[in-house]
Design a protein that fits this description.
alpha/beta, six-stranded mixed beta sheet, 258 residues, 45% helix, binds octanoyl-coenzyme A
Length: 258
């Protein structure tokens, strides 16, 4: 499908989705969010795709929700249209792993979008922030919730209340991002990680994603039970037999997602 605000490429089992509104630093408007939700759903359906990478430009992953789109809206408008909820729900329904590759600004909705992904690889140029407080509002799609779980209450309060930006080094130290690399190497690093994931059994990687995400939603005892049951269930797959046989035979496994 042809998109106007994103660019989608599938190569070697990895779907690369690039946000593409350069004049607005990839600000998230209704069209972009709708196209992104469609592309994410299509990647989930596409049998060739085994991992997804979401990225922006060198200057901005995304500088937030489109302020110009929102400025004249009333409470009734945003409440009744439930701004961005169907789109973020669609992204949340994707069961294949999604990596965010972030360079430059990831602010407001941009930071929140990166946090919707399974992990974030950052360029050393990345700047994260929840500056909505400067606009007389607050975060609306995860900046007070996912950020708090990722970096803890004190830093999440600091970011949301002061609106300050966090650089890549602090973001890695705080647990917001998994790796920081020089900007020139960002896409190689992210695509390399995606390739590694794409080589595994898709049943394993989707089960791992489901299980890690479950830890946000439940007690430790229930989470451990969920993990154990999913672990047990993987012994019903051919890929478990293949993976363990390949180890014993000192060869690379050939996973078939069965
Ligand atoms: N929305 C719309 N346009 C934007 C945005 C944005 N968020 N960010 C940048 N732009 C536009 C600018 O208006 C400018 O366009 P133009 O040339 O037509 O004036 C162009 O992008 C380039 O931007 P700048 O000239 O400002 O570039 P600088 O390098 O000087 O500054 C910054 C870069 C620091 C990133 C600056 O642009 C900035 O502060 N942007 C706004 C950041 C921000 O406040 N983000 C939060 C937005 S609110 C939000 O995300 C809420 C999410 C929750 C939604 C929940 C729904 C339920």
């Amino acid at each position: 499908m042809a998109y106007e605000t994103i660019i989608v490429e599938v190569e070697d089992h990895v779907c690369l989705i690039k946000l593409n509104r350069p004049d607005a630093l990839n600000a998230l408007n209704a069209q972009l969010m709708s196209e992104l939700a469609k592309a994410a759903s299509e990647a989930q359906e596409n049998e060739k795709v085994r991992c997804i990478v979401l990225t922006g430009s060198e200057k901005a992953f995304a500088a937030g929700a489109d302020i110009k789109m929102m400025s004249s809206k009333s409470f009734a408008d945003v409440f009744s249209e439930d701004l961005f909820t169907p789109e973020t729900d669609a992204i949340g329904r994707v069961r294949k792993p999604i990596i965010a590759a972030v360079a430059g600004y990831a602010l407001g909705g941009g930071c929140e979008l990166a946090m919707m992904c399974d992990f974030i690889i950052a360029a050393d140029t990345a700047k994260f922030g929840q500056p909505e407080v400067n606009l007389g509002v607050m975060a609306g799609i995860g900046g007070t919730q996912r950020l708090t779980r990722l970096i803890g209450k004190s830093k999440a309060m600091d970011m949301n209340l002061t609106g300050r930006f966090m650089d890549a080094e602090e973001a890695e130290r705080s647990g917001l991002v998994s790796r920081v690399v020089p900007a020139k190497k960002l896409m190689d690093e992210a695509m390399g990680a995606a390739q590694k994931i794409a080589e595994k059994s898709l049943i394993s990687t989707m089960a791992i994603k489901e299980s890690v995400n479950r830890s946000y939603e439940t007690t430790l005892r229930e989470g451990l039970l969920f993990e154990r049951r999913v672990f047990h269930s993987l012994f019903a797959t051919e890929d478990q037999k293949e993976g363990m046989a390949a180890f014993a035979e000192k060869r690379e496994p050939q996973f078939r997602d069965r």
